[in-house]
From TrEMBL, chain A:
Pfam family, one: GSP_synth
Single GO molecular function: ligase activity
Claim: Ligase is one of the keywords in the record: yes
Species name: Corallincola platygyrae
Protein name as annotated: Glutathionylspermidine synthase family protein
Automatic annotation (TrEMBL), chain B:
Origin organism lineage: Bacteria, Pseudomonadati, Pseudomonadota, Gammaproteobacteria, Alteromonadales
Name of the protein described by the UniProt record: DUF1190 domain-containing protein
Organism whose genome encodes this protein: Corallincola platygyrae
Ranges where the record places region Disordered: 158-197
Xref: InterPro entries: Biofilm_formation_YgiB
């Protein structure tokens, strides 16, 4: 795993405009960063990232099967009891999952360590699946990158294949919240993939979803929504006024309700409890239940948190590193620290995409801090050798 | 190779652009019960009526809703208004009529001929006087043959592929229950601003 300086494309802005990439710069700072790329060997990709992702996915699915039937665990994950049945139903009826992203600490040597699983509302998929692919194509054409280079990125191909499997009737409604350019683009990209899969699609904002006299969710034309992709977290849906209609709803949700369990950081201690010593897992505990193998350096994370919010790093003889936010009311877990590798001033996080339960490609994010956030830079990668 | 063979976009960026309701192009259409109805209207040549009817029947095979039982189908379309397919693997409603683009009129010109559409129409049990598309979109009154109507073009041109889905129960096709409230999801987002993970 190498970090290599590279000349950005002269026509980068033109490319971004051509392909609808409206958020390559966030708050005046570059978000898409092609002044470097990462280079992996095929062995690193397959043995250290792809295989572990597939294996962990299976461990996660086994874990869901345990949690949905265990009231003690559901309570421990702070899942509202009013939704337990709904979640169990979604699992029992095998409601399909489209995608997720596992985040790893990995430096090219030794096992990648799972930091968390963004199983419900992962973003950066357009950048990873599409724009990163085009970057490689362009850089090979201009001779900046060697023609034999490959990329771990079959994300779009797998997304299109999976779309047809997740829709029950050939139609999917796509929804995200108002006022986020990134979320809107992410959803538009997924809608694009669904159309390429031959499905009929419609878009509406989460805030526009309606409820009809049959207590079913409707779109803006009052049609009942048979299948809804929502870029909106389950734990927020559970708190919303319409949550009481979820159980009797005929809408199929993507991600399905059982994914609410995997996006909960509480799965990290539960995975460790079941697979203590697994090379891709870090010692993790619910706060207050720590054991000695946690070590003196650890990370404290809320059960529900996004974009690095409310995460803190505790290290002996070093000041507490902390990101603020509004999460954490539901409790915390602690996880042994596996610091992100550092390349010059940048700390690097590897996101590994899971499409239809299969490892499909990488998102690489860099930050000047050990805690990766929504503004962390996206850096492309290649495979050589 | 560890990457997609090829990638493209059909909607995002300069490839597409989101089609919004208010700016969507309209298509002028006419509905008919059958070929005779079309010929009697004197709007089209008989050969156009036949050609467009056959196109609608072909589309019907592909897009008509499919049900696993006669009972489930009849719940939505009424008693004796469903037929099982030749191999008996599922049930479908009868086609109640068809709609065709007005530009099909006098289309001896081959270019126009190809771009003229026709689509099958159905009548739901709970709203018998209304024509609907296979996607349950209401088109206009049954029997109003020859009356021209404007529709969003996508309703005419987007053919839903229902062949992959066989519904086990009825109750999803027909008159829409009115929406009584909106805004019951998304309250957290408004409170917190943007997010993602």
């Amino acid at each position: 795993m190498l970090r290599i300086k590279s000349a950005p494309r002269a026509n980068l802005l033109e490319r971004a405009n051509q392909y609808g990439f409206d958020f390559h710069t966030i708050d005046g700072e570059p978000y898409w960063d092609e002044t470097h790329y990462y280079q992996f060997t095929l062995r690193q990709i397959e043995d250290d990232l792809e295989d572990p992702t597939n294996e962990l996915e299976q461990l996660c699915l086994d874990l869901v099967g345990d949690i949905v039937r265990d009231e003690h665990l559901l309570a421990k994950l702070k899942v509202p009891s009013s939704q337990w049945h709904h979640i169990l139903d979604s699992w029992r009826s095998k409601e399909p999952s489209l995608y997720g992203r596992m985040d790893f600490a990995y430096n090219g040597q030794g096992p990648a360590k799972l930091l968390e699983y963004n199983a419900d509302t992962p973003t950066s998929i357009y950048e990873a699946a599409f724009f990163q692919w085009i970057w490689l194509e362009d850089q090979v054409d201009t001779g900046i990158v060697w023609r034999g280079a490959d990329q771990f990125n079959s994300i779009q191909e797998k997304l299109i294949a999976r779309m047809a499997e997740v829709s029950p009737d050939g139609e999917i409604h796509f929804a995200c919240c108002r006022d986020s350019v990134e979320d809107r683009a992410t959803v538009e990209y997924l809608e694009d993939c669904a159309r390429q899969a031959g499905l009929t699609t419609k878009f509406l904002y989460v805030e526009e979803i309606g409820l009809n006299t049959n207590k079913q969710f409707t779109d803006l034309q009052d049609f009942e929504i048979s299948c809804l992709f929502k870029l909106y977290p389950w734990e927020w849906m559970f708190d919303d006024p319409f949550s009481e209609y979820l159980a009797k709803s005929k809408t199929r949700f993507i991600e399905p309700a059982w994914k609410a369990l995997l996006s909960n950081k509480g799965i990290l201690p539960l995975l460790w409890q079941r697979h203590k010593g697994h090379p891709n897992l870090l010692p993790s505990y619910f706060e207050g239940e720590e054991q000695a193998d946690l070590g003196h350096s650890y990370c404290r994370k809320p059960l529900f948190s996004r974009e690095g919010a409310n995460i803190s790093l505790v290290r002996p003889n070093q000041p507490l590193l902390e990101v603020g936010g509004e999460y954490g009311g539901e409790g915390y877990i602690v996880q042994g620290l596996s610091p992100l590798p550092r390349f010059e001033e940048s700390f690097t996080l590897i996101g590994s995409w899971v499409i239809g339960h299969q490892a499909a490609g990488l998102t690489i994010r860099e930050d000047n801090s050990l805690i990766t956030k929504d503004t962390s830079r996206f850096v492309p990668h290649i495979i050589v050798g | 190779m560890k990457r997609s063979q090829a990638v493209k976009l059909t909607l995002m960026g300069l490839a597409g652009g989101v089609v919004t309701g208010c700016s969507e192009p309209q298509e002028q259409i006419v509905t008919f019960k059958d070929i005779e109805d079309c010929v009697d209207s004197n709007l089209f040549e008989a050969e156009d009526c036949v050609y467009q009817y056959e196109k609608a029947v072909a589309a019907h095979q592909l897009e008509a809703p499919r049900y696993s039982s006669r009972f489930a189908c009849e719940q939505d379309f009424g008693q004796n208004y469903c037929a099982s397919t030749r191999n008996g693997s599922f049930w479908q409603p009868f086609m109640a009529g068809y709609m065709m683009s007005v530009i099909a009129r006098g289309v001896s010109d081959a270019i126009y001929y190809r771009s003229a559409y026709s689509r099958p129409l159905y009548r739901s049990r709970d709203d018998w006087g209304m024509y609907r598309t296979s996607s349950n979109y209401p088109i206009g009154s049954y029997g109003s043959s020859g009356k021209m109507t404007n529709l969003p073009r996508s309703i005419m041109t987007t053919v839903p592929n229902n062949s992959g889905t066989i519904k086990k129960s009825g109750g999803q096709y027909g008159k829409k229950a009115p929406t009584i409230k909106r805004g019951g999801f998304g309250s957290k987002s408004a409170a917190r601003g943007g997010w993602g993970s």
